[in-house]
Design goal:
By secondary structure, the protein is an alpha+beta fold. The protein contains ten helices and twelve strands. It has helices spanning about 1-50, 55-70, 100-105, 160-210, 225-270, 280-310, 325-340, 360-375, 420-425, 430-440; strands at about 70-75, 80-85, 110-115, 135-145, 145-155, 320, 345-350, 355, 380-390, 390-400, 445-450, 455-465. The strands form three sheets. Strands 2-1-5-4-3 form a five-stranded antiparallel beta sheet, sandwiched between helices. It is rod-shaped, with a radius of gyration of 53 Å. The relative contact order is 0.06.
């Protein structure tokens, strides 16, 4: 890619140099021809004033002006025949040049043309000394009182201009060559520094494609490439984090499903190898098996519910529902569970209309209050609903064991348990709070947690009120 850019740059510089050389040449030639044409016109006027003089006088004038003007002067009659030649070569010859016809026949006030000449040309050509190759012939009419007496032709070489331009082009070519060489060296040297991070990033991406994760690139300095490297590192970290979450999820899900299966296998073997089982003992064993089946079923149900949420399913069938009615109904249903543990389950609240799916909201409320009851051994659990500003709040406060501060950020992660042994003892799947958080998020709300270890916890659900309920 660098070579392509370099080639384009060099071509552009060549085009610019060529254009500049043409413009310089054109400017110099135009300036020279303008000056010498004006000088030829003045000479024609001067000759017309001395045209009646003798031949020697005219020859002397032509020779003098030829030397002054740096060229050759010829005086022609109206038939284009040379009468006087400052170089004494063409006297008596008729000149068939266009410039002569333009002023003698065409009636032009001045004319000029370019001619390529050589030292070895025949005598009909206007020879110049030296090795010049190009010359310019200027003509102007000689008139007296509006009558054409002839024409004057001034021949001067223009090769010096061409040579000057060639010298300029040669010098530019040398400078250009040096600049191009420096550009090549600098381009490939600098491109190494510029493209090195990109090459490293490309290699890192390829390694990630093979390894899957754990790839980083070194980031140096600032700028777009450095930012790209940092973005790649952040992406790599996120992929690793997702991989860890996935692995933990698979491990936890496998464990949660394996545990009840192992328990059922142990219980079934106890029944199978008991020769004369006691009916009461058999009933107890079957109740345990049934409990483990329910536990495994709950894990699978919760997993399927989370998968549905992750896939954007199910579609919520929203309607205006009263959060107070839902919470009050759930508290009434869970009171027996609290009474069995010897704790009080209380409810207070006022109407708070929200826009959501009643079944999903009820599931979230059940999970929160049931969770509070499970982790409270003495005291009470208080549930309340109130309307604050533009939101409805469900507050579940318990006097349970509390939650360590470092565990609060992880409460809503799947299969996360603060006390793993106690959680399994209460029959929990480790998915309840994850489901609550997902349901509340789908309804445009959020959950806050306050807890003190040994003094209980407070979960507050914030949900937007239904339109027109503020």
């Amino acid at each position: 890619m660098v070579a392509i850019y370099l080639a384009v740059t060099i071509v552009a510089l060549l085009a610019i140099s060529f254009t500049v050389a043409i413009l310089v040449e054109s400017s110099l030639v135009n300036q020279r021809t303008k000056q010498q044409q004006e000088a030829t016109t003045r000479l024609a006027l001067e000759i017309s004033q001395s045209f009646d003089s003798d031949t020697d006088t005219l020859y002397s004038l032509a020779l003098t002006r030829a030397q002054e003007m740096g060229g050759r002067v010829l005086i022609l009659d109206t038939d284009a025949v040379v009468q006087i030649d400052s170089a004494s070569y063409q006297t008596g010859f008729m000149l068939p040049y266009r410039e002569v016809r333009d002023v003698l026949i065409g009636g032009k006030e001045a004319a000029f043309g370019f001619h390529r000449i050589s030292t070895g040309a025949d005598k009909s050509a206007l020879k110049l000394s030296g090795s010049a190759n190009w010359a310019v012939y200027y003509t102007a009419p000689i008139t007296q009182g509006g009558k054409y007496l002839g024409a004057v032709l001034f021949s001067a070489m223009i090769q010096d201009v061409e040579d000057s331009v060639a010298d300029i082009i040669a010098e530019v070519a040398i400078v250009f060559g040096i600049v191009a060489a420096v550009m090549v060296v600098l381009s490939f040297t600098l491109s190494g520094f510029v493209t090195k991070p990109i090459v490293e990033l490309t290699h890192a991406i390829r390694r990630m494609g093979k390894q899957g994760s754990g790839v980083r690139v070194k980031v140096h300095g600032q700028g777009e490439v450095a930012e790209l490297g940092r973005a790649f590192n952040r992406m790599s970290e996120q992929i690793e984090a997702h991989d860890r979450v996935r692995d933990e999820f698979v491990s936890n899900a496998s464990h949660e499903l394996k545990t009840p299966l192992a328990t059922m296998k142990l219980l079934s073997e106890s029944i199978l190898y008991e020769e004369n089982p006691d009916p009461a003992e058999m009933r107890e064993l079957f109740e345990d098996v049934n409990h483990e089946v329910d536990r495994m079923s709950n894990v699978i149900t919760d997993l399927l519910r989370l998968v549905q949420f992750d896939e954007g399913q199910p579609l919520l069938h929203r309607e205006n529902v009263d959060l107070k009615d839902i919470a009050e109904r759930v508290v009434s249903r869970l009171k027996p569970l609290a009474e069995n543990k010897g704790i009080a389950l209380n409810f207070t609240g006022s109407s708070a209309m929200i826009f959501g799916e009643e079944r999903q909201i009820e599931q979230a409320v059940v999970n929160l209050i049931e969770n509070a009851v499970k982790y409270t051994d003495a005291g009470h659990v208080d549930a309340a609903v109130k309307q604050t500003g533009s939101e409805a709040q469900l507050i579940v406060k318990d006097t349970g064991i509390g939650i360590p501060e470092d565990a609060i950020p992880h409460l809503f992660e799947r299969f996360y348990r603060v006390d793993k042994a106690r959680s399994r003892g209460t029959g929990g799947t480790g998915l309840g709070l994850a489901i609550v958080e997902r349901i509340i998020t789908l309804h445009g709300g959020f959950i806050t947690v306050e807890s003190e270890l040994g003094h209980g916890s407070t979960f507050t659900v914030h949900l937007p009120l239904a339109d027109g309920e503020e």
